[in-house]
Amino acid sequence: DKGEFRHYMMKEIYEQPKVIAACLEGRISDNKVLTDCFGVDSSFLKSVENVHIIACGTSYHAGMVAKYWIEDLANLPCTVEVASEYRYRKVAVPKDTLFLTLSQSGETADTLAALRKAKELGYLTSLAICNVPSSTLVRESALTLLTNAGAEIGVASTKAFTTQLTALLITSIAIASEKEALSAIKEAELVNSMRSLPAHIDEALKQDVAIKKVSDRFANKHNALFLGRGPMFPIALEGSLKLKEISYIHAEAYPAGELKHGPLALVDEDMPIITMVPHNSMLDKLKSNLQEVAARGGELYVFADKDAELQNTEGVIFTEVPKVDEILEPIVHTIPLQLLSYHVAVVKGTDVDQPRNLAKSVTVE
Ligand code: M6R
């Protein structure tokens, strides 16, 4: 039932404050991640020395964000790979590596094949972050953290992604805490930030009308470039995947620092460039990347908080995103990108919930 919404995708975008709260429920206390959130005592994480994350599509992008969190908070090496590559190559597994899969459906053929291969290779243990409790992935993994997003009908993943990120942040903090890489004060700060996530998502959704207006400018576009730095790079990848999936606009994403190494050649007045601007030490670097684009006549769509000091100026279309703690930025910045791709698809008149050539669950290779 789509309720008041025209499409499932929009209904699912708007469900995010509620389902993120459901994902946090029972996993955090006032000041820490609860030790039983993986169904067993989380002390098993003390022996983890490496993390291998395997997934496909949107779930893969969530894994890419987690790499930044795990290396930053837990100081552990983390690699992220698409399942269809992992399953067919010779993989070197360092001692005491955690095998972590991400999947909305828990039925993605390549991800299941990767898990079966991993069991033969010998890992410390396998953990699945998944939305479907009765899925094959959950059944075959040693440990599970459910995302609690509820059924997702739209082919374009929205609430599944932001709940995966929430579950990954819980996992990253749990690992960091068990590895004694995180002080109790810092853990309490992070957990406290997480608790405010549903309210921030609610606030981000308030830009819906403004983003709808912006989307009209994409009616005749055939290409788009997404830029991000740090954990915002995978969010740029996710924004570009969303746009291409449902509006059929060819979109690419690059880490902003790569611009000069090739993609800058694509920039002209016909190329919209979409950037999620984080509020961190990389802000000034990103601003200079944006100037490079503006100097070549590119049309800039900038998503930033109001303190980033980026306003509507010639060639810059600015949309405000709530100011949040740095750790939450990738999750909150996802919302405007979902809204943008949704409204652009509506403007283009495509089948939003059931884009051509795609299936919700990719159960064949
Ligand atoms: O169910 P899974 O998370 O394993 O699915 C993986 C991908 O097929 C999926 O995320 C796909 O990329 C979505 N259509 C993206 O919106």
From TrEMBL:
GO molecular function, one term: glutamine-fructose-6-phosphate transaminase (isomerizing) activity
Keywords of the record: Aminotransferase, Cytoplasm, Glutamine amidotransferase, Repeat, Transferase
Coiled coil feature spans: none
Catalyzed chemical reaction(s): D-fructose 6-phosphate + L-glutamine = D-glucosamine 6-phosphate + L-glutamate
GO annotation terms (biological process): amino sugar biosynthetic process; carbohydrate metabolic process; fructose 6-phosphate metabolic process; protein N-linked glycosylation; UDP-N-acetylglucosamine metabolic process
Chief place of localization: cytoplasm
Keyword Acetylation included in the entry's annotation: no
Enzyme Commission code(s) on record: 2.6.1.16
Compartment(s): Cytoplasm
Active site: K360
SIS domain sequence ranges: 40-181, 214-355
GO cellular component assignments: cytosol
Class of this enzyme: transferase
Assembly behavior: Homodimer.
Function statement: Catalyzes the first step in hexosamine metabolism, converting fructose-6P into glucosamine-6P using glutamine as a nitrogen source.
Protein name: Glutamine--fructose-6-phosphate aminotransferase [isomerizing]
Organism from which the protein derives: Marinomonas mediterranea (strain ATCC 700492 / JCM 21426 / NBRC 103028 / MMB-1)
Shown residues within the full chain: 245 to 609 of 609
